[in-house]
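Predict the assembly for these two chains.
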Amino acid sequence: SAVISQKPSRDICQRGTSLTIQCQVDSQVTMMFWYRQQPGQSLTLIATANQGSEATYESGFVIDKFPISRPNLTFSTLTVSNMSPEDSSIYLCSVETGNGYTFGSGTRLTVV
Amino acid sequence: KQEVTQIPAALSVPEGENLVLNCSFTDSAIYNLQWFRQDPGKGLTSLLLIQSSQREQTSGRLNASLDKSSGRSTLYIAASQPGDSATYLCAVISVGSNYKLTFGKGTLLTVNP
């Protein structure tokens, strides 16, 4: 299965600022997925990132708030923009390689 | 719309016990079901993947079963250890979902020494 390197592992940010999260995969994959896990909740899909096209966002998530880049088949970034305390969550990237889904180690974001 | 339910929400057992975690899903049209483990504040670690045509999968002390027609899966953990303490998440990929995962809310397992 694929190995994903995600960073940063955690950050504490001031409200109104932005944070960019990076995921690097050790193999080429068509789709990368970005999830949010709010405190005490399960995972919610934010968007699907395809190389060479705009990301596809789920209901309730918009590109202005969560811009995504996918410059090649092994890398993607998610930016959390104009942050508020409600954005405090764990953010995770994921890929599917034909043997189930693999997740990154997560980014624990606290907005103060 | 697919919904995944995990029971119990939390479970506390003494070390050495065998235990079962339950997962149910409302739409039996799935490609596969995957069990994950999540330690506090961390990412997800894949435990077992069961394809829709399979009945069970085993890895070490873990055994996962799938009854697709009834919309149920169980994760059996044998001889539990304190290191098994974590949240266990069940997720399915439904037909027609564009290969997106639908997660349950998880079961928080505590194994006491």
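DSSP finds no helices and eleven strands in chain A. Chain A touches chain B at residues 1, 6, 10, 31, 33, 41-43, 45, 48, 90, 92, 94, 96, 99-106, 108 (CB under 8 Å).
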